[in-house]
Amino acid sequence: MGLLEGIKKYSQENPAINTQNKEAFSMFLELGFPTKNDEEWKYTSLKKIISKEYKIENKGEKINENEITESSLGLGEKIIFLNGELLRNPEISGVTVTKKTNNNPKYHDAITALNAAYAKNGYNIVVKKNTQITEPLEILFLTKNASNNFIQYNNSILLQENSSIKILENIKNLTQNLCFTNTKTEIKINNGGVLELNKIQDYSDSQFLIDNTNIVQDSKSCSTINTMLLGGAFTRNNLSFIQNGAHCESNMNGITVLNNNEFGDHHTYIDHKNEKCESNEMYKGVYAGKSNGVFNGKIMVRPDAQKINAFQANNNLLLSDDCSINSKPQLEIYADDVKCSHGCTIGQLDEKALFYMRTRGISEKDARQILTFAFVAEALEKITVPSLYEKSKALIEAKLNVSLSI
Amino acid sequence: MLKIENLNAGVEETKILNGINLTVKPGEVHAIMGPNGSGKSTLSSVIAGSDDYEVTSGSVSFYGDDLLSLDPDERAHKGVFLSFQYPVEIPGISVSNFIKAAITEKRKKIGLKPISAKELLSKMREKMALLNIKPGYLSRNMNEGFSGGEKKRNEIFQMAMLEPKLSILDETDSGLDIDALKTVAAGVNKLKNEENATIIITHYQRLLDYIIPDFVHVLHNGRIIKSGGKELAKELELNGYDWITKEADKKWGC
Fold first, then answer.
1. Which residue numbers of B have CB closer than 8 Å to A's CBs?
2. What is the per-residue pLDDT for A406?
3. Which of A42, A213, B43, B219 has the fewest CB atoms found within 10 Å of its own CB?
4. Percent with pLDDT over 90 in chain B
5. Which domain holds residue B205?
6. At how many degrees (to 10) do helices B95-109 and B148-162 cross?
7. What is the ipTM of this complex?
8. Residue B210 sits in a domain of what CATH number?
């Protein structure tokens, strides 16, 4: 039984609770899982993933403290989910962390509709007005299951006026059984709020993920989303920003390093609706083996969004003959006094630089690894939590088999 | 130290070097001069191990080793250094990390124990002082956004750190103003000793006012057509290359 049949069966046993959930579910059923005929999924196939059999929202096994410690990146306060259930939430002064209730969910396509209909788990973070949280908050989603599991999270983050927080999201599957996670996070940043959200996606081959993160920003707010995609059989990140207020800043940085048969897809959307705002987007991709990547970056500049500055870059390195990247920038500009730039490159390592390094005594293998690391380093610098920067650097170095610290 | 015999090299069908013969001994400074397109940069690239050029015949030996059979990094480990005419920008890697990678690997390959971070840093500071390099330079990305002068100074800095036996300075004077030229030349002179040798490749005589060569060779159509002492460089500066190349063209029939 494939996932669609599984979900249908689950819905008969667990009817949707309220009208919104019901409407969302019927939208999902009507649309079904997206296929390659859908423009947004042209290069991204769910076929293999949804043909597998999963238990839906299955209760899993117990976990011990060691497993938590090993999975954690070891940063400050933690919110821990196990198999969808909230296991632990910290008490932080100025922040409330509660379990999310799935009332009045928003959705706009089949995947988010499915999430809206049946996601029962997730966190709800509210950072109170004028509160600056200096210690980063780690959110750990763990699965430990005796069978393949399909699991959905529906999260929300609210930054009240002039508050700030740095968050790290980390998903870990502790077994060889497949875990397909469909997660959706709604973020609202009120006037003057500052958010840094880091996603560390160093998944095993048994983890599949569709991540939907939607951010709405009021005036003078700033959001930075850093996505480190360093593994996993299938990862699709849908990241969107809506700039409602003036003088907003939205930053998105991505590092993708994939090998073997891994697949990673970044779909980003920035909606400039107000004036004097900025958006900066830098995605670096390194593909080796038979890995495949997709980048789709859309920038919308509405008529009222005068004097905005939008920058987008997607640079890719292909290290083998069997890997690929499909990169597509999309710009729609309806305002005349704006500065928009975008660039997409796909290439190999610079042969001149390789020769230069070798004349200094660096072996070809090392020179290739160092240059590859140097290629992604620019995006890595955007992580402002020092311990997380070090951790991410170590993960990337390990993936590229390079050591560069002095 | 270095012995080049009847070296012929080119790119695909085009022959660039047509039988170069050159012997360099420890402690010597050789200048190779010649008009544009005479093969100067090809010669330095071939010695350093670029695979852009194919060596069709001849030999290059370095302390008895067949240099042409070695990879560029192996040549560096033996003590060959090329200061590039156009140093390559490498964004994302700092000068200090670059130098560290080069020195660590060289020490490993020649069987020396690794240098400590502290020792390395103090050596870098010492060499920076020698070349009038400002602090903050070590954390800049390799050649990225460097001015022409800074790039050339960075080449000599690497040379100072790597302590090669043979340094080839390919058009090190190009793009330098007179002050930068003096600093770079003073650096090269300070690094000179009886054990090492330098080959200066240049179009103009200018640099040779500051680094005095023991031998000057004129390269034309891929051949050394005249060799002499330092006075040859002065003569070329005064009279140009024509008088000497015409004579050679008659002799070799081009």
1. 48-51, 71-73, 75-77, 80-82, 84, 87-93, 96-98, 100-103, 105-106, 109, 117, 120, 158, 162
2. 37
3. A42
4. 72
5. 2-252
6. 30
7. 0.94
8. 3.40.50.300
